[in-house]
Amino acid sequence: MTRAARVGRVERTTKETSVLVEINLDGTGKVDVSTGVGFYDHMLDQLGRHGLFDLTVKTDGDLHIDSHHTIEDTALALGAAFRQALGDKVGIYRFGNCTVPLDESLAQVTVDLSGRPYLVHTEPENMAPMIGAYDTTMTRHILESFVAQAQIALHVHVPYGRNAHHIVECQFKALARALRYASERDPRAAGILPSTKGAL
Ligand SMILES: [Mn+2]
């Protein structure tokens, strides 16, 4: 049986940004990312590497204003590309979770590729406001944007952590791995849609 390639490609252009995202869910973690926001590139690199997704992201955004539109629009395109790559969701695990520590910080991520967007997110308050050009309040905004387009239920919790870089990075690592587990093909479920409703 030949399986359709699980790839997504989204181009999104507005007056604020121009974004290209390409993703292959069955990749090897080959990543080529440039958004103009160094720390965000580092996070998207985590997503591809630990998700074992091949991921290309090229964003040309209005960084002369700030990094907000660039970060948000990239997350929207990424969510849309991920949804596209999931295709009919037949034969996948659907649910995934992963807990990842990064030194003193811990992230717990649980995902359901449900077809319905819902985000629950908690992280320590009073984090350092900026990591390079990355505004740390954008992490929730990235997750919201990704969830809205990917149409998934996503719960991300950081029960403790001190260093802002660690707090954000462990979230992306755990997200990557949870998305990988949920989107992976279940060898016992070939040809089966993981829903009693008959739709996902
Ligand atoms: Mn916004």
TrEMBL record:
Reaction(s) catalysed by this chain, per the record, are: D-erythro-1-(imidazol-4-yl)glycerol 3-phosphate = 3-(imidazol-4-yl)-2-oxopropyl phosphate + H2O
Q: Which UniProt keywords apply?
A: Amino-acid biosynthesis, Cytoplasm, Histidine biosynthesis, Lyase
Provide the protein's localization. Answer: Cytoplasm
* CDD domains listed in its UniProt record: IGPD
Report whether Ligase shows up as a keyword of the record: no
Gene3D superfamilies attached to this UniProt entry: Imidazole glycerol phosphate dehydratase, domain 1
Which Pfam families does the entry mention?
IGPD
Q: What class of enzyme is it?
A: lyase
Q: What is its EC number?
A: 4.2.1.19
Q: Which residues form a coiled coil?
A: none
SUPFAM superfamilies per record: Ribosomal protein S5 domain 2-like
Q: Main localisation, per the record? A: cytoplasm
Task: Report the pathway entry.
Answer: Amino-acid biosynthesis; L-histidine biosynthesis; L-histidine from 5-phospho-alpha-D-ribose 1-diphosphate: step 6/9
Keyword Cytoplasm set for record: yes
Q: Give the UniProt family note.
A: Belongs to the imidazoleglycerol-phosphate dehydratase family.
NCBIfam families membership: PRK00951.1-6, PRK00951.2-1, PRK00951.2-4
Query: Mind telling me what this protein is named?
Result: Imidazoleglycerol-phosphate dehydratase
Q: Which organism is it from?
A: Streptomyces gelaticus
Q: Which gene encodes it?
A: hisB
